[in-house]
Automatic annotation (TrEMBL):
InterPro entries in the record: Endo/exonu/phosph_ase_sf, Endo/exonuclease/phosphatase, Swc5/CFDP1/2
Spans annotated as Disordered: 1-51
Record organism: Labeo rohita (Indian major carp)
Endonuclease/exonuclease/phosphatase domain: residues covered: 66-299
GO molecular function: catalytic activity
SUPFAM superfamilies: DNase I-like
Polar residues composition bias: residue spans: 1-29
Source taxon at top rank: Eukaryota
Stated name of the protein: Craniofacial development 2-like protein
Entry-linked PANTHER family: BUCENTAUR RELATED, CRANIOFACIAL DEVELOPMENT PROTEIN 2-LIKE
The organism's taxonomic lineage, starting at the top: Eukaryota, Metazoa, Chordata, Craniata, Vertebrata
Length: 390
């Protein structure tokens, strides 16, 4: 039976990290090893001659998300990108990076790092998105929101993707901080283009459990443990926004679903999640913990596999009806048709004379057309033809 610790113990306490004594850097400690590209706090737009699509219906895109405890240590970024390469990830979302400010940089091994952190030089929280070499060509724009949220928009072959990387307050954290987090998350989601494939991922500090009664639109039945307060908030958020919690959809052993382990190894929970909008639910092929990845964190790397599954675009088939004029070759049918037309025409003419009307040409034409249509319907009937539209 899983137990819920009151907090994540010392390994998850958000303590500040001191400046590296060897370098004295207060910005990312490995910034001397990378090319700094832009660190303003505004939305970034990338204009490239070569455009690369991340998502397509033919290839699988590998996403990862990981609370790494900190990237503010010498050599830590290199460790993370090495594991990213080992698991062939195209995109990695990082929680608790502890980098301050916001910006974009390229590593010595050509990964692109987008990051968003605190503005007060306190090395707490922080989020980042790391793009594999080549993947950055599909980056359309990105925006830092806070030390707990950031977003990026990527170009896909058939649909674009909006990524939102998260680091939510802990379950026993300040209620006001939780409210601010979900308000910012809601605001960011509402500004995403409505036709995008939307992925929200990161350390949500939320246990959603396995009981999806009344919540089957927001989650599956393969979660772990019992729902906590943060889990209720997350499920409610997903229900309101037609999002699905991916890690609850797939039947795996618990060791491939539990994302966090306490220092004593006894308490384990599923608190890191990936959500996808319900429209693209079938495009999410798998969500799974990779226990072999190691950067000295109490969280495991979680990977997700996405391949676009496009809805059928078969053209709609409609039935069109035509008068079966071929029946007029039969003498009896033809005779009846002639009588029908004559009688209807005489009746129409008599009505006009009684009313003393000299109707305009268009009105007369409509009456004559109706006359022939009714006569044809009565005498020859219809034949049906299929017509493809669209």
């Amino acid at each position: 039976m899983l137990t819920t610790p009151t907090h994540k113990n010392i390994n998850v306490t958000e303590t500040a990290t001191k400046k590296n004594s060897a370098t004295g850097y207060s910005s990312p400690p490995e910034s001397h090893l990378v090319t700094r590209m832009n660190d303003s706090g505004e939305s970034r737009k990338e204009t490239t001659d070569r455009k690369m699509e991340v998502l397509s219906a033919k290839t699988k895109t590998r996403f990862g998300f990981w609370n790494v405890r900190t990237m503010y240590e010498m050599g830590k970024l290199a460790q993370i990108t090495a594991e990213m390469g080992r698991y062939s990830l195209h995109i990695l979302g990082v929680s608790e990076s502890r980098w301050t400010g916001s910006g974009k940089m390229k590593t010595s091994t050509a990964e692109t790092v987008l990051y968003s952190g605190r503005e007060d030089d306190q090395h707490h929280e922080g989020v980042a998105i790391i793009l594999r070499r080549g993947t950055e060509k599909s980056l359309m724009q990105w925006k830092p929101v806070s030390s707990r949220l950031m977003s990026a928009r990527m170009r896909g072959r058939h649909v674009n993707i909006t990524l939102i990387q998260c680091y939510a307050p802990t379950n026993d954290g300040d209620e006001e901080a939780k409210d601010v987090f979900y308000e910012q998350l809601q605001s960011k989601l509402e500004t995403a283009p409505r036709h995008d494939l939307i992925v929200i991922m990161g350390d949500l500090n939320a246990k959603v459990g396995s009981n999806n009664t009344h919540h089957d639109r927001a989650m599956g039945s393969h979660g772990c443990g019992a729902m906590n307060d943060n889990g209720e908030c997350l499920v409610e958020f997903c229900t309101l926004n037609n999002m699905v919690i991916g890690g609850t959809l797939f039947s795996h052993r618990d060791i491939h679903k539990l994302t966090w382990c306490s220092p004593n190894g006894r308490d384990k929970n599923q608190i890191d999640h990936l959500m996808i909008n319900g429209t693209w639910r079938r495009s999410l092929l798998d969500v799974k913990v990779k226990r072999g990845a190691d950067v000295g964190s109490d969280h495991h790397l979680v990977t997700a596999l996405i391949r676009l599954k496009l809805q059928s675009t078969d053209r709609k088939t409609t039935m069109r009806k035509h008068f079966d004029v071929s029946r007029l070759r039969y003498t009896k049918v033809k005779a009846v048709f002639v009588v029908q037309v004559r009688n209807r025409f005489q009746a129409l003419q008599a009505l006009d004379e009684e009313a003393g009307r000299a109707d305009e040409t268009n009105k007369q034409w409509e009456q004559v057309a109706s006359l022939y249509s009714k006569s044809s319907e009565a005498c020859v009937g219809y034949k049906w033809k299929k017509k493809k539209s669209g």
